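Bug #2210: C-alpha cell dump truncated for Glycosyltransferase family 2 protein?
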Amino acid sequence: MEISVVIPSYNEEGNVERLYMELATVLTRMKKSHEILFVDDGSSDGTVGKLEKIAKHDKSVKLIKHGSNKGQTAALLTGFKVSRGRIVISMDADLQNDPSDIPKLVEGLEKADVVCGWRADRKDSFGKRMASKLNNFLVRRFFGLSLHDQGCTLRAYKSSAIKDLELHGEGHRYIPAMLSVKGHKVIEMKVKHHERKSGKTKYGLSRLPKGFLDLITLKFLTSYGSRPIHIFGAAGFALMGLGFLGGVKLLYDKYVLGHGIGSRPLLILVVLLVLLGMQFIFNGLLAELIIRTRERK
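Reproduced locally. Full output below:
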C-alpha cells in the first residue's frame, strides 16, 4: 500500500460525499495503491450512514467508528494506527482542505519526513486567524519550528515518522513540533483553503486554553520528560533560596536590631518556603525513580 488518507469526521453529513468524490478522483489520477480511512468520531447526524454507503461501494474506503465523541486528536491517532500506507495523508472532512493539493505534498516527502499544508489565503473568521497566529508564535518560541501554519490538518507523513506517535488532549495541532523534536525533517507548502459550505465549525474560543495547556505539557515532556529532577530541583532550590534570604533577614532583625520575630508572618513564610522547596526536590527524585523503573521494564 502506497498511500493512506486519514479523515476524522464528526457531524459532516453535508460534506463527506463530495469530499469522497473529489478525493477518489485525485487518488485515481495519481495511479498509486491507496486506502481512504474515515474515522467517525461519534457523529449524531447522518454522517455514518453516508460513509457506510460509500464504503460498500468502494472497497478502498474503510469506516472506523468511535462509540462516542473523543475529539480530533483521538480520531487521527486511530486512523494512524490502522493505516497501512507507506505515506499517510491527514485532512479535515469539512471540504476546507482541497484534495488536489495531495500530489504536491507527496512529492515534498522526497526531501522531508513531514510536509505541512500552509493555508496562505485562509478562509476563516478573524478570530480563528488571530488564534492561529498566536499558536504559531508560541510553537516557534517553545520548539523553534518556524511554520506559518501549525494547525493545518492537511499534511503528508512518511509512515515511519508517525509509527510510535503518542497523542493526548488537543495534541494533533502540535504533531509537526513533536516530530521535529524527535529529529524528523518538517517542511511546509502552500495549499488552497475554502470556506465551509455545510455544517458547523467544531472550533471555538473554549479550545484556546485547552490548546495552550497541551502546548505547555508537550514542552515539559519533551524538555524534561527524561530528567524531571532538573525542573523540580531548580524550583525547589529557588524556593529554599528565598526561604534562606528570609531567614537571614529575620536573624538580622533579631540579633542586630533586637526585634522580636516569634510572631512575625515572615517566620511562617520562611518555614513554608523551605518545606515547599524540599517537597519539590523530593517529587523530582520520585519522578526520576518512576522513569528509571519504567525504562528497566
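Output looks complete on our side. The first strand starts at residue 3 and ends at 9. Marking as cannot-reproduce; reopen if the truncation happens again.
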